[in-house]
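mind reviewing these tokens:
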Amino acid sequence: MPSSGQNEGGEHHQRLRETRLQKRKAAEVLPSSGDSSAAAAATTAATSAAAAAAAAATEGTGKRGRRGGGGAPKSPGGGSSGSSGSGSSSGSSSSSSSGSSGTSSSSSSCSGGSPCALESAANGCSSNHFSGRAPHPPLQQKGINAESKEDIIRSEIPKSVVKVFCTHCEPNYSQPWTTRRQTTSTSTGFVTFDAEGNHCILTNAHSVDNAAVVQVRRRGDHQKHEAKVICVGLDCDLALLQVDDPDFWDEIGPPLQWGPSPSLEDPVTVAGYPLGGDNSSVTQGVVSRTDLQQYSMGSCWLLAIQIDAAINPGNSGGPALNKDKKCVGIAFQSLKDGDTENIGYIIPSEVVAHFLEDYKRHKKYTGFGDCGFTWQRLENKFMRSALQLKNKQQGVLVKKVDGASFARDVLQRGDIILSVNGKKVASDGSVEFERGERISFSWIFAQLFVGDRCHLVVLRRGRQIHVSYQVERISLLVPATNELRRAEYLIVGGLVFVPLSEPFLKSEYGDDFESRAPVRLLDQWQHGMQQFPGQQCVVLTHVLAHEITVFAMLY
């Protein structure tokens, strides 16, 4: 692979796809706690392969979403696994049993597994019951001084931290007129204010994905209260819950206040309800990194904070608190393999604020902004010279403009992006970030809301021009998730048509669909971008018995 990164990016994209698929496989190997030993071994192998693939992908074409930009792949963390309720293929509930064996998971959440499977497996759970690893190192080994440690230990877990119980009913994408068996999971949430100042409960999207019933329980209480999901953001893995029962709010603690995003080495406390007990639990650690990561539920890259506090199944949706007991993030996923230990990720307050403000503006989730074009690094000096870049000029090359993006009206193939919203773009696609760090310029677009305008300085055939356009969400032709949370289909004369999506590929061809699915479908999955809003790739999946089809099959 040339050091300049001027290739077409095919091998780079393949490694990134394999990384994502390995991560998804790790999220599905533990449907119930009874298979924990095998799941832990499978998770270790999958995440090790994912880390190796990411380490190799250091050059190439800059991409968005599935063709992603950067950052190490990671296994998602989340709600702890409960028992699975058996049910008919139509989703009716009955007596409790241990999971739906013999079927391919088709959930569009966190790569196709139910949250209980996703979180129990992907985390590899650092408790001895799951992986036999040593307990989390003491605080003294993390650089937290004695005074800070004592303050953390003295502080109580806020009463506004609640336990979330969810019954999931996932679509069956192979037979879209049915659903999978119901499963259950537990996770964490906490009371906060939404953007309008109203009380609400904030948790992870994968904790309530495909929810049939959601209940919450206050800390120290025995009674569960029914909750309803009022907003879900898959890209940022966040969800808002509302409880109508006034008794729930009578004795709940005060809503958590938001604090600024922590700096490196700042101490944090993660509160939640992980596996290992029914009562609340806390783990402590420090901030070790801030970077863009691909969230396990979505297809875009957003800001994430890496901490060394243990994040185990059930911690998903729990607040990360600073020493002033202000929330600075939300636990949502972790990375664990044979070579890593205690690497967890929290959603920073900037991403949460964007989600809450989005709900305030539109009364629904509209997503994060996307640049609307495919770009390539310009680190090769000969390439830079051929494109008439001066010695100190930096930027990235536009390779393709999405047809469904407003960028198509102002950008052209071969343009060089010099700056975005006043921030200079380096030849590796990075911009200046906080405290001397650098981060991908895609974060500038992600901070915008759908419909906001971005302003670019572009070099076109040696001449510098200024352009602006409205940003839209990423427009993959084959979506990574199904936001409708139900399987779409159309039956005409016995012919069953479904839109092509990643959950469908996983359901129809298994976890390794990248090697089993037809090439023509994989080509759309890998390279397809919408040419107009709402465009879909439709697949004929079944031919049912019908007077038309039966007559045709006779000949």
Observations:
- The longest strand covers residues 281-294.
